[in-house]
Amino acid sequence: MIYCKYSLKKFNTFNININAIKIVKIKDLEKLCNLWKKYKKQNFPCLILGDGSNILFLKNFYGLVIINRIKGIYISESKKYWNLHVNSGEKWHDLVKFTIKHKIYGLENLALIPGRVGSAPIQNIGAYGSSIQNFCEYVDIINPINKKIKRINKKKCNFKYRDSIFKYNYKNYVIISIGLSLSKKWIPNLKYNDLKKLKYNITPQKIFNYICNIRKKKIPYPKIYGNAGSFFKNPIISPILGTKLLKIFSDMPFSLEKKKFKLSAGWLIDKCKFKGYISSNGAMVYSKQSLILLNRFNNSSGIDILELAIKIYYKVGKKFGVWLEPEVKIIDSHGEVNPYIFFKKNNI
Ligand code: FAD
Ligand code: EPU
Questions:
Q1: Comparing C-alpha atoms, which of 108, 110, 96, 20 is closest to residue 59?
Q2: What domains lie within the chain, and their CATH numbers?
Q3: Does the predicted model carry a pTM greater than 0.90?
Q4: Integer Rg of the chain from CA
Q5: What pLDDT does 199 receive?
Q6: What pLDDT is attached to residue 197?
Q7: Can 327 be counted among the known catalytic residues?
Q8: Ligand 2: distance of its center to the CA of 189 in Å?
Q9: Which letter, b or e, does each residue of 251-288 get, where b requires 16 or more Cβ atoms within 10 Å of its Cβ?
Q10: Is 345's pLDDT higher than 90?
Q11: Is 230 annotated as catalytic?
């Protein structure tokens, strides 16, 4: 009998206290591949994590968890661009700070997004009117079993809102580095509502500071209240359903994306009166931002959080005909699962 004896509590921002058979922090690629191969040979699942800021563990993980700390930032330049090759274990926010310190601008709108560089292209991280797809030129991946490396160029990454090819293909690969290209001619990105007032004497540092401040005010610090940022994605719906909903809910916020309606999941959840709701198990809808679910007392299980998410899913679905998709990846004992199927199967 092999026991899951090592706690993953410090390696996931929901602060869920579950265990894995083995947890290893890795700083070099060769070691990563060898360990991965060894565990796969024995039929154990392998999971690579950055900071665990976009996952929800439901059960003990029956395998190997690799905490990626493979670092390195390499700069080159052309006439018009700074080109950065960044290894996947770098902290995303440290990279943003590094670029600003070196007078390389463009990433400031993406300041303070948690997690590591290797996870950033998977859901095409975004905030405050920007996303990594605006800068990403390529993503390098490795098959840890045969150590073959592939470069996936920007076009093939298929970046969309909170989406990319890496959510569907290359599941048995590990992202090892990414390439970013940042223009030497800086143009401030002030599209997002909250930033419009900043237009005078604007500098990248001012945007960076402003964004860090609003994020600190709006988003709870996971070490205090476990969370993974937005639990659901903002839904993108057909023009027919969007127009129909606007007739009933004239105050519904939305934006148009290629003729489709992008709604605010936070608003939909508010309208179902969930804001501030706390379940008997301590799973909570954050009172300042309904899209964020909290492990309020840091003693809930992943299933407690998922139960609340499913409750929200059905209430919002029934009221608006809009079925929310989780942004957070749900992991059970052997890897990622579809939360709705998991819920039904386990009769929760
Ligand atoms: P993890 O949670 O460790 O992993 C996520 C998934 O990626 C897992 O399936 C994992 O197996 C896989 N993975 C990780 N590394 C690799 C690799 N090297 N190769 C292959 N697969 C890998 N996101 C936004 O887009 N915008 C925001 O504004 C934002 N705000 C947030 C605020 C808070 C407080 C929190 C907690 C999260 C927020 N997020 C936001 C979500 C999160 O920051 C991002 O999804 C981030 O990219 C996750 O990085 P991570 O390293 O923690 O990934
Ligand atoms: N809203 C409500 N009630 C709420 C929350 C939001 O009505 O409780 C409405 C308001 O109309 C508000 C609008 O939604 O003006 C937008 O809210 P906010 O600016 O807080 O952004 P969001 O759409 O809720 C998204 C991202 C965040 C990102 C911010 C800033 C998604 C799923 N979430 O949130 O990303 O930081 O915009 O750009 O797209 C994450 O992905 O984990 C994340 C935190």
A1: 20
A2: 6-68 (3.30.43.10), 73-218 (3.30.465.10), 236-343 (3.90.78.10)
A3: yes
A4: 21
A5: 78
A6: 84
A7: yes
A8: 18
A9: ebebeeeeeebbbbbbbbbbbbebeebeeebbbbbbee
A10: no
A11: yes
